[in-house]
Design brief:
This protein is α+β, with helices and mostly antiparallel strands. 39% of the residues lie in helices and 28% in strands. A hairpin with a 2-residue loop joins strand 2 and strand 3.
Length: 64
């Protein structure tokens, strides 16, 4: 995927909001060291995705 943004937060927004992935696989605990990125990621997961399965320490989400 080509991304046009310059900051990490802009890149995350472009990936989650513009590209709208159907499936996301995330860690069950903290995914980012940056709290702003972690907050945005978790907010998007709660708003637009539902957890469909858990495999080890990974959680699989599907877009609503």
């Amino acid at each position: 995927m080509q991304v046009k943004a310059s900051s990490s937060l802009e890149i995350l927004d472009e990936l989650l909001i513009d590209h709208k992935p159907y499936i996301i696989v995330a860690k069950s605990n903290k995914n980012f060291k940056d709290s702003a990125l972690e907050s945005r990621f978790n907010s998007t997961l709660k708003q637009d995705y539902q957890q469909i399965q858990s495999v080890g320490s990974a959680i699989i989400y599907k877009r609503n």
